[in-house]
Amino acid sequence: MYIRKLLEMSALILSIINGLALLRQYLRDKPKLQVDPVHPESYQWWFKLPSRDYKGHKTRRYGLLIYLGISNRGLRNVSLESWNLFVITLNNKKHELKPISIPEPKGKLGDNEKIYSVLGQTGLYHNGDTLIESGTSISGMAYYIAEFCGDEILDLKICNNQISGEVQVEGVYGKKAKTKIALHERSLEFIESLIPGIEKIG
Questions:
Q1: Does domain 31-200 have CATH number 2.60.40?
Q2: Considering only Cβ atoms within 10 Å of each terminal Cβ, which end of the chain, N or C, has fewer?
Q3: On the CB side of 146, how many CA atoms lie within 13 Å of its CA?
Q4: Closest to 68 measured CA to CA, from 173, 201, 169
Q5: Is the pLDDT of residue 11 over 60?
Q6: pTM (two decimals)
Q7: Mapped to the 3 state alphabet, what secondary structure does 114-178 carry?
């Protein structure tokens, strides 16, 4: 009887040790995401979109186009699950925006044409894969629309033609990373030169 209980206790202790070892390995090897705006003074933009009718009222619409770089400093590969943008309204409430599908933006870089990837989206020149291998990074643009109707207190908070926000990315294992971002105003005409027909998207 005594020997059997001793064996049961030994088996329990061994299972606990094995579990702790597996947990330690998971914590050591888990992905470590980091997200940053790419060239924050050059690429992070917001612009006014044409209003729409909603139940007899005109809406106020804004496009937000950002360029992000996401790296994985962990030992495990990870794919991105989401990359949402949070902005602040005039009543100091957070407003969550989810990315909207757009064509690959095209712009001039000197005498050459530069084609930008869009996060998570297959295009003519990029496969849209969000898998980030250990020690590597990906980058791409993301587009969001903020639309408001009614009381202007629900509108976006804009200070000195700038909108402040926060980007939060999440991997498939639930690991999150976030960064502050400042978006600068550009004209709809300028954005249309990169993405023709963007005012009709969304």
A1: yes
A2: N
A3: 23
A4: 169
A5: no
A6: 0.83
A7: EECCECCCCCCCCCCCCEECCCCEEEEEEEEEEEECCCHHHCECCECCEEEEEEEEEECCCCEEE
